[in-house]
Design a protein that fits this description.
Number of strands: 4
Order of helices and strands: EHEHEEHHHHHHH
Shape: globular
Number of domains: 2
Strand content: 5-15%
Distance between the termini: 29 Å
CATH architecture of the largest domain: Up-down Bundle
Largest sheet: 4 strands, mixed
Number of helices: 9
Length: 222
């Protein structure tokens, strides 16, 4: 039996964060797709599981936490780090500075960037007569600029040193989204280098938007 159930959408960056860390830690999970474009996250059934009406939702199957639900991606990342420490996704506890830096980088994406560029906000920008694409391009660029400013001092092969952390799990789908909206990544040499290195990592490759079971066939990466 798998360890978790993951409610997710293939092109949800928050869902991809969890897939990357689940893959990194070799944690088994069952996927239940939630189609955001069809508003399945707004159904009464899904809201009963996740009052935020969003994805991802991680549900534990492991004793003693069986049935425990986490409906926020960063909280789920922290939980997985505490419950499955064998393959760490943060620097060691002896490196408080490194751990704090990884969390700062997570929040630049998860608190400052993604919430103002998600599907719900894009729909509202369009309803007000604006260009959601230009909105996202500008704000995603702002987020990566902040990430670059911090990561240039902390990065090794990856965002904080030479091991993949939860910061990288947040960064990777943020860059995928930035590419989609035409952000010029050449402005961010550190981010671009980290992105290139992460692109070679099996945990990231397996989490690719376009390799997920719920990805439409015409978008699927062969």
């Amino acid at each position: 039996m798998s360890d978790y159930t993951l409610y997710a959408y293939f092109r949800s960056s928050c869902s991809a964060r969890l897939r990357i860390i689940l893959n990194l830690k070799n944690i088994s999970y069952d996927l239940i797709p939630v189609n955001l474009l069809k508003d399945e996250q707004l159904s009464a059934e899904h809201k009963a599981l996740n009052p935020s009406a969003s994805v991802p939702l991680l549900v534990s199957k492991r004793s003693p936490d069986a049935g425990f639900k986490i409906g926020q991606s960063v909280a789920a990342l922290e939980y997985l780090e505490e419950v499955h420490p064998a393959v760490p996704a943060l620097p060691p506890t002896s490196d408080a500075k490194g751990r704090a830096t990884a969390r700062v980088l997570c929040e630049i994406i998860a608190a400052d960037t993604q919430p103002v560029t998600n599907l719900r906000i894009m729909r509202r920008v369009r309803a007000l007569g604006g260009s959601a694409e230009e909105w996202n391009k500008e704000l995603m660029g702002d987020g990566l600029r902040a990430y670059e400013a911090v990561a240039k001092d902390s990065a090794g092969k990856y965002s904080v040193g030479d091991n993949v952390t939860m910061a990288d799990a947040c960064l990777m789908p943020a860059v995928w989204n930035a590419q989609r909206f035409g952000v010029d990544l050449s402005q961010f040499p550190t981010v671009s280098r980290i992105f290139a290195n992460l692109s070679e990592h099996p945990a990231v490759q397996k989490a690719d938007y376009f390799k997920q079971p719920d990805c439409p066939e015409d978008l699927r990466r062969k």
